Amino acid sequence: MNLPKPTNTVFARLKRWPKIPLGLRLFLLYFVLVILTAYLVSSTVMREIKPTVRQASEETLVDMANMLAVIASNPMANGDIAQSAFAKQINFYGLRDPDAAIWGVEKKSVNHRVYITDQQGIVVLDSWQQDVGNDFSKWNDVYLTLRGEYGARSTALDPNDPLSTVMHVAAPIMYNDEIIGSVTVAKANRSVQPFIDISRYRVLTWLALMSVLALIIGALIAWRINTALYKLADYADKMGRGEKTSKPTFRVFYEYSLLSDALENMRRQLDGKRYVENYVQTLTHELKSPLSAIKGASEILQTPTTVDKQQLFAQNIETEATRMQQLIDKLLALTKLEQLPELEQRQLIDLPALLAQIKASCISRLMTKQVELSVVCDNKVAFVGDQFLIQQALYNLFENALDFVCEQGKINITVTQTAGELCINVENTGPKIPDYALKRVTERFYSLARSNGQKSTGLGLNFVEQVVKLHKGKLDIHNTPQGVSVKLFLPTP
């Protein structure tokens, strides 16, 4: 049978379907389960509390009825139970004030009613003094008890009021192994209703609190799951863009740690393969130009030529060889730097001393170009980082500024520190960076011509950018009215 193919409309509807995060979906499922469980438990408990309490009351009435039956056996056998001391005690019992507080419910009167019948079911004693002489032989409590069975009944005083029922439990009065009467103990169900209400309130309160607590815990777990997924997604996204990022760690959800480890291993394998390919391609491309120049100069030197030209081409060979050496050295340094996922060493860096050292090493070039250098840095400025990498980055920035600064120009190095951030600004007077090149100056091997027409390796600013990223900072390069400004923003604790 050929099934119809889904139309584009179906796919469009699927795309419009709202994307609900996994954590929220799990929480909604958990929410439904908690609410359903709470409803089933509460409804079951609410149904069982009332009959359970009444069963417990009935069990107490059974014990009380049998105790009174034993006490009443002798007066009943003598035929003077109505005038006996037992009758007076029963009457006094009905008048007692218990003055008790049970679970916060005050009890000011005795709720039990006691009446005794003879062998024919005629009431001979009533603690309420209202049914003496009446025939109760048809009531189940008396009828069944006088026949040697368990006698009990529940009678409603008002058919329209379910709480008006009264529970009656009877016990046989025995004398010489013969039933000579019955004792019935009656208790209104309304008297136990406050305890049923309190039990229901407490059960519902605790059930609601536990449900809320369970939902809060479920929400926290769902949030943690969603956060962990977003961490992994962000980690994978940054890896895909080639950014340096630390592998996320998970202390509770170790399964995510396994996944992040797998992503990290995959990144290393892919980065290693891709890096070797890019390294070979870029190195081949960059070495082609100096090798061609060296080959051309060597071919000319093999032909008869003047001494001046020999010196010129020999100097050209030396210059291109030096350029190749610098290119290889910087590529090796950059290769090592790019393989670092995070800083290996951290120490307190004395920035003023470091800037003074860089200034001293470049003093000859400053004097040659007659460049004025200004360093503004508080003597107390210090931050934590890798001193060697920061030193190399500042050397690259300073040399780059010297390459582009105009004759008798100025280089200003300003260091400012605010709460949580350190800014190193290297500004030089001279030609501005063209607009088309501003976004590319940190690319590997991208270089602009100096005043002498020569280009650098194009790795200096890329190296600086990598160092700044390792320190969790940012690099800002922009033109100023007088020249170019390069700012390093480094976070401080």
UniProtKB/TrEMBL annotation:
It catalyses: ATP + protein L-histidine = ADP + protein N-phospho-L-histidine. The chain crosses the membrane at residues 20-41, 203-223. It is an enzyme of class 2 (transferase). GO terms for molecular function: protein histidine kinase activity. The keyword Transport does not apply. Residues 282-493 form the Histidine kinase domain. Its EC number is 2.7.13.3. Keywords: Kinase, Membrane, Phosphoprotein, Transferase, Transmembrane, Transmembrane helix. This is histidine kinase. It comes from Pseudoalteromonas neustonica.
